[in-house]
Amino acid sequence: MAKLGIDLWGLLWQAVAFGLLVFVLYKFMYKSTLNMIDERANKVKQGMQDAERARQRAAEADEQFEQRMAEARHKAQEAVAAAARASEKVQADMLEQAKQEAARVLQEARQQIEEEQRRALAEVRSQIIDLSIDLTRKVLQQSLDEQAQRRLIEQFAQSAALASAVPDGAGSPATAGAPEAGSAGPAQPVASGKADDAKQ
Predict the structure, then answer these.
(1) What is the number of structural domains in the chain?
(2) 7 lies in some domain
(3) pLDDT at residue 171 above 50?
């Protein structure tokens, strides 16, 4: 060995030192390194698990979001349909109220027209009776004495009262009473009056 230039004792000491170094590294560094590697692996594994849980939570949140959106769309459609039904009902109610109001106005107009017609007929009937009485009084005034004139006026007034109490088409009693009153005796005085006027 000496001839080859190899220091056997030096090589031995180097081998011993290397063995000691390996022993020290194994004793103090290997376990800590393994622990560090295991801890790192656990952290990676934990991170992967956390990522998986986050992905699941995101998927669940997305599913819940889709469900809520579907519920919101359904509620919106129901609200639109309810608003449409309410609008149709309001329109139908307004149309019905308009029809009822038109019918009421038409009925009131008819009643008012009928009332005005009755009043007009009553006024015309009263005017006709008054004119008939005045005309009869003027015609017979010169040829009747006071008693006969009063009797004729009373009979004519009774006929006029009956005519005013009877509905349309009941004016015949008044017109029928006048000839009877005139035929009871006033015809001769009228003739005598005319004869007296001729003599004069």
Answers:
(1) 1
(2) no
(3) no
Domain of 151 in residue numbering reads as 116-186
The answer to whether residue 76 is domain-embedded is no
Distance CA 132, CA 119 (A): 20
What one-character-per-residue DSSP string does 37-87 give?
Answer: HHHHHHHHHHHHHHHHHHHHHHHHHHHHHHHHHHHHHHHHHHHHHHHHHHH
Q: What is the widest separation between alpha-carbon atoms in the chain?
A: 213
pLDDT tops 70 at residue 164: no
Q: Is residue 159 part of a domain?
A: yes
Contacts of residue 163, defined as CB under 8 A and 6 or more positions apart, other chains included, come to 125, 129, 170, 171, 173, 174
Q: Name the more confident of 98 and 145.
A: 98
How many residues would you count in the chain?
200
